UniProtKB/TrEMBL annotation:
The modification 4-aspartylphosphate is found at D55. Residues 5-122 form the Response regulatory domain. PROSITE patterns: HTH_LYTTR, RESPONSE_REGULATORY. This is DNA-binding response regulator. It comes from the Bacteria. Residues 146-234 form the HTH LytTR-type domain. GO terms for molecular function: DNA binding; phosphorelay response regulator activity.
Amino acid sequence: MDNINVLIVEDTPAESDALVKVLSENNYNIVGVARTHQEALTLFYQNTIDIVIIDVFLDGKPDGITFAETINIVPNGLKPFVFLTSSKDRQIFERAKLTKPFSFLLKPFNELEILYALEMAVEKFYEQTNAFHSEDQNTVISSDSLFIKKNKVLKKVQIKDILYIEVEDRYCNIVTDTDKFVILISLTKIIQLLDPAKFCQTHRNYIVNLSKIEQINVNDNLIVLKGNHKVTLSDKYKDFVKNFRILK
């Protein structure tokens, strides 16, 4: 399980230091702090970014908005971002609003405001509203990652690393090569959010990553995954075997 990667775009050292402190204490990974528009672009393109915190004004100019406008048109590269500003200028707010930020916070920020803003940005970006605050889910699923809230902390798991998912009532055990952890989400919900071309249900309690399958034993109702992990294949779900080319 990885920490969420945050890029901070803030030209005032005291402000960026405060952000780094709050986010680091809550287990976010700071990939970099940019003081200028160009530095922000360089860090954005050179690193894996999950979310960006952007100061509207950089060196007295609204270059934070310019940066947001730029990353909004990056092919397949759009990431959620939130604005921070001490400006109360209505025209600036209207221009910033056009970039569709996921939050707009006035300085000085407080810890809870910024943490809640990041959670909401992830939820809204992946169109899974209130996932971190509902009674039956603590996970947001994107095309390539799970964003999981544990206590006050958001964590990230790469979907490609999942071997299989074992369902127990309202909980799911997520098993990877190196880890196993429990998330609060129902079978019905997680199946809706996973790519059916990559994951398949093999039993009422199991979902497997198709790319991790090493052996299918239809007669014994067994699937062997990478690392010799074994899951059950029930008769009800055997049709998925037709998707594989069988060598005879």
